[in-house]
Amino acid sequence: MNLDNEQLVTTLNETVQDPSSVVGKHYAKMKSFTLDHGVEAIVYARTSEYSRADIQQIAKIIGHLDSPSQALFRQQFREYLASKEH
Predict the structure, then answer these.
(1) CA distance 52 to 32
(2) pTM score, whole prediction
(3) DSSP, residue by residue, 35-60
(4) Degrees, nearest 5: CA angle 50-9-20
């Protein structure tokens, strides 16, 4: 994985694990597994929907990262917000 994408994955991982964050407040930890070499895999379940304000805040967080994946996320955010207008 290149460093720019790693920054994106790390940021999303940190926000999911923080229950007070804009992402983490929508997830509950269900179970964790210890894999080879002490790697921990954690399974989360989404417990609530994202609001328009949540999506806009997440877009700002990702927008400040130097990641080639920004365009993909911007498109996903637009589609999600458009689906909420109907």
Answers:
(1) 30
(2) 0.74
(3) -GGG-EEEEEEE-SPPPHHHHHHHHH
(4) 45
